[in-house]
Specification:
CATH superfamily of the largest domain: D-amino Acid Aminotransferase, subunit A, domain 2
Largest sheet: 9 strands, mixed
Low-confidence stretches: none
CATH architecture of the largest domain: Alpha-Beta Barrel
Structural class: alpha+beta
Mean pLDDT: 97
Distance between the termini: 34 Å
Bound molecules: 4'-deoxy-4'-aminopyridoxal-5'-phosphate
Number of helices: 8
């Protein structure tokens, strides 16, 4: 059984004890990777208590991922938003990482998915700290370019957050750690920078902030969108453009971002120190504005926070 991280899980419409939220070994998703999921965070804010960050956008992306795979989710977006909130409340969590997943379960063997197949859906919520470590949030992570490329555009769509895509992420992450790096960065099949194993990437030089485009085999992250909005608010120019590998070696600052990784500076790439090393000043400014959304220092002009305990 998966390690118990909380007391309850929402599973196919009911909240049940963690231990009872199990599936059969013949579950389709285990054999064929047929799942789509989200990673969402809730933060304990001073003014509104526990709030889910960008709930609507995450649920929308879950349904988008399902649409790509013609997966029928037998709930509405509103129902899943409510279920996610109920799961946090039932587990009495102040802050949480939340994992909604829709998957094909007992739909029979084989890759001939019935065209009207219904997905099973579960939502787990539990406490989870800084994904790349507290130390990395402050001093940066040492990253290495992976020998594994991200998926080519006409193979598996990276715009869907599907379970099967994470075989690529696992290869990138394992290789990075074997080589002594904290995280791996992959190139796309054209040789340009794509993204980290589970993070989007921003590169800064001479005050201009660039990030890899949606056509560079990335998952277009919700944190990426948040960072782009916040950086524009701070007056920075943001470019979505192809980034060659050497731009990482010549950058003044680099950071990675994602729901799990939040905003994490990159200290070095392939053993070459980025700028002066550690956390650069623009990265720190963006990081402060990002975490400010949750500690009350950044006004939530965009209605990104959904209070859990009203
Ligand atoms: N790329 C990949 C491969 C990811 O797994 C994630 C994390 N979901 C991201 C980017 C960042 O996406 P988000 O900011 O929406 O969490």
């Amino acid at each position: 059984m998966a390690k118990q991280l909380a007391d309850y899980i929402w599973f196919n419409g009911k909240i049940i004890p963690w231990k009872e939220a199990t599936v059969h070994v013949m579950t389709h998703a285990i054999h064929y990777g047929s799942s789509v999921f989200e990673g969402v965070r809730a933060y304990n804010t001073p003014d509104q208590g526990t709030c889910v960050f960008r709930l609507q956008e995450h649920t929308r992306r879950l349904f988008d991922s399902a649409k790509i795979y013609r997966m029928n989710i037998p709930y509405t977006m509103d129902e899943l938003n409510q279920a996610l909130i109920d799961t946090i409340v039932k587990n009495d969590l102040k802050s949480a990482y939340i994992r909604p997943i829709a998957f094909f379960g007992d739909i029979g063997m084989g890759i001939k998915v019935p065209l009207d197949a219904e997905a099973e859906v579960s939502i787990a919520a539990f406490e989870w700290g800084a994904y790349l470590g507290e130390e990395a949030l402050k001093n940066g992570v040492n990253a290495g370019i992976s020998s594994w490329n991200r998926l080519a555009a006409n193979t598996i769509p990276t715009g869907a957050k599907a379970g099967g895509n994470y075989l690529s992420s696992q290869l990138i992450s394992m290789e990075a750690r074997r080589h002594g790096y904290g995280e791996g960065i992959a190139l796309d099949t054209n040789g340009f920078i794509s993204e980290g194993a589970g993070e989007n990437i921003f590169v800064i030089r001479d005050g201009v902030i660039s990030t890899t485009p949606k056509t560079a085999a990335i998952l277009p992250g919700i944190t990426r969108d948040t960072v782009m909005t916040l950086a524009k608010e701070l007056g920075y120019e943001i470019r979505e453009e192809n980034i060659p590998r050497e731009a990482m070696y010549l950058a003044d600052e680099i950071f990675m971002c994602g729901t799990a990784a939040e905003v994490t500076p990159v200290n070095s790439v392939d053993g070459i120190t980025v700028g002066k090393g550690g956390r650069g000043p623009i990265t720190e400014e963006i990081q402060n504005m990002f975490f400010g959304l949750f500690n009350g220092k950044t006004e939530d002009k965009w209605n990104w926070l959904t209070p859990v305990y009203k």
